[in-house]
Amino acid sequence: MRKRTQARECALKILYQLDILDQPIDQVISAFWEFNPASDDVRQFAEQLVRGTREHLTEIDQKIIHYTENWQLNRMAVVDRNILRFAVYELLFMDEIPPKVTINEAVNVAKKYSQDEAGKFVNGILDKINHTEVTKSDTAGSKEETHG
Fold first, then answer.
1. Which CATH superfamily is domain 3-134 in?
2. pLDDT value, residue 43
Protein backbone atom coordinates (compact mmCIF):
# COMPACT_ATOMS: atom_id res chain seq x y z
CA MET A 1 0.00 0.00 0.00
CA ARG A 2 1.30 3.45 -0.92
CA LYS A 3 2.39 5.67 1.97
CA ARG A 4 -0.12 8.45 1.32
CA THR A 5 -2.95 5.94 0.98
CA GLN A 6 -1.93 4.43 4.31
CA ALA A 7 -1.68 7.93 5.81
CA ARG A 8 -5.20 8.82 4.63
CA GLU A 9 -6.55 5.66 6.25
CA CYS A 10 -4.77 6.57 9.49
CA ALA A 11 -6.12 10.13 9.26
CA LEU A 12 -9.64 8.74 8.88
CA LYS A 13 -9.23 6.58 11.98
CA ILE A 14 -7.84 9.48 14.03
CA LEU A 15 -10.57 11.88 12.84
CA TYR A 16 -13.17 9.22 13.64
CA GLN A 17 -11.82 8.95 17.19
CA LEU A 18 -11.76 12.73 17.57
CA ASP A 19 -15.37 12.86 16.39
CA ILE A 20 -16.64 10.39 18.99
CA LEU A 21 -14.25 10.94 21.91
CA ASP A 22 -14.05 14.05 24.03
CA GLN A 23 -10.26 14.13 24.21
CA PRO A 24 -7.57 16.60 23.11
CA ILE A 25 -6.15 16.12 19.62
CA ASP A 26 -2.58 15.48 20.85
CA GLN A 27 -3.78 12.77 23.23
CA VAL A 28 -5.78 10.99 20.52
CA ILE A 29 -2.93 11.18 18.00
CA SER A 30 -0.38 9.94 20.51
CA ALA A 31 -2.54 7.00 21.56
CA PHE A 32 -3.26 6.12 17.95
CA TRP A 33 0.43 5.89 17.01
CA GLU A 34 1.16 3.88 20.14
CA PHE A 35 -1.16 1.12 18.91
CA ASN A 36 -0.67 1.66 15.17
CA PRO A 37 3.02 2.10 14.42
CA ALA A 38 3.84 3.64 11.05
CA SER A 39 6.76 5.13 9.16
CA ASP A 40 7.65 8.79 9.67
CA ASP A 41 6.32 9.66 6.20
CA VAL A 42 2.94 8.10 6.94
CA ARG A 43 2.73 9.73 10.35
CA GLN A 44 3.71 13.15 9.02
CA PHE A 45 1.14 13.19 6.20
CA ALA A 46 -1.63 11.71 8.39
CA GLU A 47 -1.03 14.30 11.09
CA GLN A 48 -0.95 17.09 8.51
CA LEU A 49 -4.38 15.94 7.30
CA VAL A 50 -5.78 15.58 10.81
CA ARG A 51 -4.47 18.87 12.19
CA GLY A 52 -5.33 20.80 9.04
CA THR A 53 -8.82 19.34 8.93
CA ARG A 54 -9.45 20.17 12.58
CA GLU A 55 -7.98 23.67 12.20
CA HIS A 56 -10.34 24.46 9.31
CA LEU A 57 -13.25 22.30 10.51
CA THR A 58 -15.88 25.05 10.53
CA GLU A 59 -15.09 26.13 6.97
CA ILE A 60 -14.84 22.53 5.76
CA ASP A 61 -18.15 21.55 7.36
CA GLN A 62 -19.84 24.60 5.81
CA LYS A 63 -18.64 23.51 2.35
CA ILE A 64 -19.87 19.95 2.90
CA ILE A 65 -23.27 21.16 4.14
CA HIS A 66 -23.58 23.50 1.16
CA TYR A 67 -22.98 20.70 -1.36
CA THR A 68 -24.91 17.89 0.30
CA GLU A 69 -28.54 18.24 -0.61
CA ASN A 70 -31.00 17.06 2.02
CA TRP A 71 -28.23 15.81 4.33
CA GLN A 72 -27.50 17.08 7.80
CA LEU A 73 -23.85 16.70 8.76
CA ASN A 74 -24.67 15.19 12.16
CA ARG A 75 -26.89 12.54 10.51
CA MET A 76 -24.20 11.49 8.04
CA ALA A 77 -22.26 8.31 8.84
CA VAL A 78 -19.23 9.24 10.96
CA VAL A 79 -16.87 7.49 8.51
CA ASP A 80 -18.32 9.27 5.46
CA ARG A 81 -18.30 12.63 7.21
CA ASN A 82 -14.63 12.31 8.13
CA ILE A 83 -13.57 11.08 4.70
CA LEU A 84 -15.27 14.12 3.21
CA ARG A 85 -13.62 16.36 5.79
CA PHE A 86 -10.03 15.32 5.11
CA ALA A 87 -10.63 15.26 1.35
CA VAL A 88 -12.13 18.76 1.37
CA TYR A 89 -9.11 19.89 3.38
CA GLU A 90 -6.85 18.44 0.67
CA LEU A 91 -8.87 20.07 -2.11
CA LEU A 92 -8.95 23.51 -0.52
CA PHE A 93 -5.61 23.75 1.27
CA MET A 94 -3.10 21.33 -0.27
CA ASP A 95 -2.34 22.73 -3.72
CA GLU A 96 0.45 20.24 -4.37
CA ILE A 97 -2.03 17.34 -4.58
CA PRO A 98 -4.02 17.16 -7.84
CA PRO A 99 -7.79 17.14 -7.23
CA LYS A 100 -8.18 13.91 -9.23
CA VAL A 101 -5.81 12.16 -6.80
CA THR A 102 -7.62 13.52 -3.74
CA ILE A 103 -11.02 12.47 -5.03
CA ASN A 104 -9.87 9.02 -6.17
CA GLU A 105 -8.15 8.32 -2.85
CA ALA A 106 -11.20 9.46 -0.85
CA VAL A 107 -13.50 7.26 -2.94
CA ASN A 108 -11.22 4.26 -2.41
CA VAL A 109 -11.11 4.86 1.35
CA ALA A 110 -14.92 5.15 1.38
CA LYS A 111 -15.26 1.87 -0.52
CA LYS A 112 -12.98 0.16 1.98
CA TYR A 113 -14.34 1.59 5.25
CA SER A 114 -17.98 2.46 4.59
CA GLN A 115 -21.13 1.09 2.98
CA ASP A 116 -21.42 0.04 -0.65
CA GLU A 117 -22.84 3.33 -1.93
CA ALA A 118 -20.44 5.54 0.05
CA GLY A 119 -17.92 5.74 -2.80
CA LYS A 120 -20.54 7.26 -5.12
CA PHE A 121 -21.72 9.64 -2.41
CA VAL A 122 -18.19 10.83 -1.60
CA ASN A 123 -17.31 11.15 -5.29
CA GLY A 124 -20.41 13.24 -6.02
CA ILE A 125 -19.83 15.70 -3.19
CA LEU A 126 -16.10 16.10 -3.80
CA ASP A 127 -16.61 16.49 -7.54
CA LYS A 128 -19.11 19.32 -6.93
CA ILE A 129 -16.73 21.03 -4.51
CA ASN A 130 -13.81 20.62 -6.89
CA HIS A 131 -15.66 22.03 -9.89
CA THR A 132 -17.13 25.02 -8.10
CA GLU A 133 -14.80 25.88 -5.23
CA VAL A 134 -11.32 24.68 -6.20
CA THR A 135 -11.24 25.65 -9.86
CA LYS A 136 -13.07 28.92 -9.14
CA SER A 137 -10.57 29.99 -6.48
CA ASP A 138 -7.54 28.75 -8.43
CA THR A 139 -5.91 31.98 -9.46
CA ALA A 140 -2.35 30.65 -9.30
CA GLY A 141 -3.10 27.75 -11.63
CA SER A 142 -1.56 25.19 -9.30
CA LYS A 143 -4.62 22.93 -9.33
CA GLU A 144 -5.49 21.22 -12.56
CA GLU A 145 -9.11 21.45 -13.60
CA THR A 146 -10.90 18.12 -13.76
CA HIS A 147 -13.77 17.17 -16.02
CA GLY A 148 -15.67 14.21 -14.75
1. NusB-like (1.10.940.10)
2. 98
